Amino acid sequence: MSAKLVMKQVTKTYGDGDGAMTVLNNLDLTVNEGEFVAVLGPSGSGKSTFLSAAGALLTPTRGEIFLDGESLRDKGKGELTELRLQKIGFMFQSAQLLPFLKVEEQLLYVAKLAKLSTKDAKVRAAYLLKRLDIWERRHHYPEQLSGGEKQRVAIARAWMNKPAILFADEPTASLDYSRGREVVRMIADEVRSEGKAAVMVTHDERMLEWCDRVLHLEDGVLVEAHS
Amino acid sequence: MFLALREMRHSKARYSLIMVIMLLVSFLVLFVTGLARGLAYANISALKNMPANYFVVQSDADHTFRRSQLGGTELAAVRAVAGVAKATPLGVQTSTITASGADVKADITFFAVDMTGMLAPEVTEGTGITNEVQGSAVADSKLEQSGVTIGSTIRDQASGMSWTVTGFVKDSSYSHTPVVYINPLDWQAMKQGAVQGGIADSTGSAPYNVIALDVTAAQADQIAGQQQAVEVITQKQAVSSVPGYAAEQNSLLMMIVFLFVIAAVVLAVFFYVITIQKTSQFGILKAMGTKMSYLAWSVVGQVMLLSVASLALGILLTLGMNMGLPDTMPFELDGQTMAMTSLLFIGMSLLGSLISVARVARVDALEAIGRTGA
Asked: Which residue numbers delimit the ABC transporter domain (chain A) (predicted)?
């Protein structure tokens, strides 16, 4: 078992002096291989800040973050971009597919960024799209897809470059209950079958059935849920 | 270009509209440039087509041919340097003529040239004239359109002298008036008044206006240095000193410059607005690990593609338009001017796209997280 994500004493403070607001306060977290972690919290609890810091989008004020064993400290903007490309798969709220790319191209694009050969990329894209049961829709534009289908494409896109860890930002926000559960189940399936890790940020407590661990973000730290 | 091309494929209507606007702007730029060039050529084609690269003018004549007066002494001195064949005198006289047998009254410019020298007109219709026979002239073909034909007699209103038109030349205008070529004998006759008025040169003949030269730059310098009262100017300087030429061209140049500025601003604003609309997309792309350089090339590549395609269509449209233009509307667009204009147009588009690139650079990948928008 190797740790895919380690956050050590991570603190993020906005502003300074008396007006300073501490969003993350000496937060610790370890996510291991094959683990699917859910982070719950009401809006304004710092979920976005937590996800941005873990996803190498935001540099914390203090503390250290390791992604797949690699420290994020002292990395330049370009290196972080490269690291996000190689090590992290992102799922955004409302899928956030590129409106002008067909389903298959959404996947081919990230593969192209990672300099994967077109042939390999097509094989990988076909594999993922078939697994997520969206293969028939590969030549459709996002506007022609339902919300659930869009999120399935987003899952496929996130796993395309075989990242070490997947970060999902409210993946079920724009979906109804049953479709939301379906999407979360699929993320969990992928985590297990690919031997990777995933962190999902959500405020919806009904979506936790498939998660290995559920944490609450309270006062800038993560607390194990007692259910 | 992966993104740029697919984006255009997806939003065909939007990018077609941009292309139409770019096409119209590029067409306007090329067309006005062509008209300006045409007008310039129609103005001074007689000078432009002369096989002379330098002109000797009197130093107090402000480069203007008609103000300059040179006599045999200067000619002899210049010929000592340049050689007889490479330096030939030119008399210029603006006047008004009437033609027999036709209801014509036209402003023309007389060019008195040595009919065996390098300035001798190249007759395209009819026959030329010689230095020996008086009373014959060769006229610009524009006079033919006014009703003058070969064999017509034209009469100079100022001097009362008459010539029989024996032939026509093409593209020979000076200050927008057709040029009538006469030989030195007729020039002397025309200028009898000047001779009697006491401004004849040492040999007793009437003065010429300028001396046309076909010499090297070093020779031109030598001629300029050797005489106090004369100045050697290039053909370009001579052209821009033709009365009205500079004013006309400056107005047109101003229009073209403004067209370029407007084109650049319109394109820049268009792409900027589109870029702002796509801000969230750029955030997502950056979060997923797209390098800024990739996005910059995507934006610039798109602008390049659109401007080159529009420009190509604009050139076709301009050439097509040129074919449909009536002869009285002068239009001149040589390859070099077209290439320069095209390069400038593409350069301006690229410059405009850089504003969008700067906007993209400011987009933070963080914007991707916690967004609810589609």
From this structure: 5-225
A145 and B CB contact within 8 Å: no
Q: A157-166, B72-81, B108-117 — which is least confidently predicted?
A: B72-81
A141 and B6 within 8 Å at the Cβ level: the answer is no
For A38-93, the pLDDT digits (tens) are 999 887 788 889 999 999 998 899 999 999 988 998 888 889 999 999 999 999 88
Residues 6 or more apart whose CB falls under 8 angstroms from that of B66 comprise: B92, B93, B94, B209
Q: Which residue in the block uniquely carries the two structure tokens 């730029």?
A: B29
Distance from CA of A30 to the nearest CA of B (A): 21
Question: pLDDT, tens digit, for every residue of A87-135?
Answer: 999 998 888 899 999 999 999 999 999 998 999 999 999 999 998 889 9
Do the chains contact at A169 and B370, CB–CB below 8 Å? yes
Q: Does A59 touch chain B (CB under 8 A)?
A: no
Q: Do A84 and B289 touch (CB under 8 A)?
A: yes
Distance (Å, whole) CA A81 – CA B365: 9
- State ipTM: 0.89
- One DSSP character per residue, A46-112 reads SHHHHHHHHTTSS--SEEEEEETTEE-TT--HHHHHHHHHHHEEEEBTTB---TTS-HHHHHHHHHH
**How many Å lie between the alpha carbon of A18 and the closest alpha carbon of chain B?**
25
pLDDT at B374: 39
- Residues B117 and B119: their CA atoms lie apart, in Å, by 6
β A213-218/A221-224 pair status: antiparallel
